[in-house]
Design goal:
This protein is an alpha/beta fold. It folds into three domains: 4-12 and 71-387 and 469-481, Trimethylamine methyltransferase-like (TIM Barrel, Alpha-Beta Barrel), CATH 3.20.20; 16-67, no CATH class; 393-423, no CATH class. The protein is 47% helix and 14% strand. It has 18 helices and 21 strands. It has helices at residues 15-32, 39-48, 63-72, 122-134, 155-166, 177-192, 195-200, 218-230, 250-271, 298-314, 333-348, 369-385, 393-396, 398-404, 414-423, 435-440, 446-460, 468-483, and strands spanning 4-5, 34-36, 51-53, 58-60, 77-79, 88-90, 94-97, 105-109, 115-119, 171-173, 204-206, 215-216, 234-238, 241-242, 277-281, 284-286, 293-294, 319-322, 353-355, 360-361, 366-367. A hairpin with a 6-residue loop joins β16 (284-286) and β17 (293-294). The protein starts with a strand and ends with a helix.
Length: 484
């Protein structure tokens, strides 16, 4: 997939401000330190020159180690699909969208104003994976739900098995520590034909996430270790909450999340210098009135746009951020404006891969089939809206204007036929009919139209199935992981 390049991204920070954020992040790393809840990680850091307190599990990281890790980080990262047409190249201001992840509930639309909230199931996971694979504006797959009807031990392997069977797009996942990460890497290797082929065409990446503020759990460290050892892309992630697990100022949050991802990046490159790494942040805010963790706020868009600029311009790294998110409990007007604003703000800032960008509601706790379809439309409009205007003799259209002249019309011109699909975004579920035609066709609201679209996709969308031997090997790994 080519992606769309943002020609003139937002610049919310000047050069001096980026320098100050970086310098303060280095102070956090070298003077405050970071907790690493695994002795092996502390040993690696100590051997590299960090000041380590084993009792408190804190390592203080000197600036030169961080700089070395930054210099070893790849500037262009390719995330591959099972089919080459789904390959993503993360670089510069090229942008893509990724799906939602790990919802524990499904908001089920029952018609009219009727909705129910119920636990997410394995059947939902399969269906939502098929739908995501079919949607053209969702370029990368994350496991949409955390199924509540399966054994929770080894559930990461369950989700990996579903992804490998039901989507051909690149997917990235969380993992249950070192062994869980190795299981998923092994499963992906089987599908592509071995670990060497996986290193060349990584169809999977894993996302170790720090616990804010400044704590790397043993599980997350295990994922970093597995990715570095196997040379599989690690998406080093931070999820700070403004005013709760990070300072209430956006500048302070930028400092902390920078320190957090750099601390993971440093360890990755100490284990395996040059291993493929990406940085990802999911900044949110705490609503001081309700104590809810809010993602659909304009602050989320601002912080992701600023983060994209910082990692692109100052560090030279691809950046994964969040957008097209909402805290609404159902697919309604609030969901529409929150998703559109957070998507547009982040993408205009040059977020390379915007994740959690489809289907998610209710502080990321819930997913909606209909919202997934609606979000695909929103994302398509955003991608069309950021395309660079094509200015040349043919698009300036002087000859056409001269030919048609005053009181003419352009509908029958070859120029119109040639350019209309390229210049105009043609929605799939938005209503643009007259009221009379709309009423004759049943006066369907957008949720009804979206529901019909999901049913159509589930009936018609097919992907090339895996060989039965491969399916059996994946099943064996998953069953072993569930048994422990």
């Amino acid at each position: 997939m080519d992606g769309i390049t943002v020609s003139k991204p937002l610049r919310l920070l000047d050069n001096d401000e980026m320098q100050r954020i970086h310098e303060t992040s280095i102070q956090v790393l070298s003077k405050v330190g970071v907790v690493y809840e695994a002795e092996w990680a502390l040993n690696i850091l100590k051997e590299a020159g960090c000041e380590v307190d084993y009792k408190k599990q804190i390592a203080k990281i000197p600036e030169e180690l961080v700089k070395d890790a930054i210099n070893k980080s790849q500037r262009i990262i390719k995330l591959c699909g099972r089919k080459q047409k789904y390959d993503l190249t993360l670089e510069g201001t090229k942008v893509y969208f990724a799906g939602g992840a790990n919802a524990v509930k499904v908001i089920e639309y029952r018609g009219g104003d009727n909705f129910i909230s119920r636990p997410a199931t394995l059947d939902d996971l399969i269906k939502l994976t098929i739908i995501t694979d079919a949607l053209e504006n969702i370029h990368c797959y994350l496991s949409p739900v955390y199924p509540q009807d399966v054994i929770q031990k080894g559930v990461d392997s369950v989700k990996c098995e579903i992804a490998l069977n039901y989507t051909e797009k690149h997917f990235y996942h969380d993992a249950e520590g070192y062994e869980g990460a190795l299981n998923q890497i092994k499963m992906a290797s089987i599908v592509v034909g071995g670990e060497d082929k996986l290193r060349k065409r990584p169809i999977i990446s894993l996302a170790p996430c720090i616990t804010s503020p400044l704590v790397w759990s043993e599980n997350a460290l295990g994922v970093i270790k597995a990715c570095a050892e196997k040379n599989v892309p690690a998406i080093i992630s931070s999820e700070p909450i403004l005013g709760a697990t990070a300072p209430v100022t956006m500048a302070g949050l930028l400092v902390q999340q920078c320190a957090e991802v750099l601390s993971g990046l440093t360890l990755s490159h100490l284990i395996n210098p040059g291993t493929p790494t990406l940085v990802c942040t999911l900044p949110s805010i705490m609503d001081m009135h309700t104590a809810s963790i809010i993602l659909g706020s304009i602050e989320t868009g601002v912080m992701c746009a600023a983060s994209a600029q910082l990692f692109r311009e100052f560090y030279g790294m691809p950046y994964i951020g969040v957008g097209a998110v909402s805290d609404s409990k159902i697919p309604d007007q609030q969901a529409g404006y929150e998703k559109a604003l957070t998507a547009l703000y982040g993408i205009l800032g040059g977020v390379n891969l915007m994740h959690l960008a489809s289907g998610m509601l209710e502080f990321l706790l819930s997913v909606s089939y209909e919202q997934l379809i609606i979000d695909n439309e929103i994302l398509g409009m955003v991608l069309h809206g950021i395309k660079k205007l094509e200015i040349n003799d043919e698009t300036l259209a002087f000859d056409v204007i001269q030919k048609v002249g005053p009181r003419g019309q352009f509908l029958e011109q070859k120029h119109t036929i040639k350019y209309m699909r390229k210049q105009l975004y043609l929605p799939t579920i938005s209503d643009r009919q007259s009221r009379e035609i709309w009423e004759k066709k049943g006066a369907k609201n957008i949720l009804t139209r979206a529901k019909e679209k999901t049913e159509e996709i589930l009936k018609t969308h097919k992907i090339e199935p895996l060989d039965e031997d491969i399916k059996r090997m994946l099943r064996n790994i998953r069953e072993a992981a569930q048994k422990g």
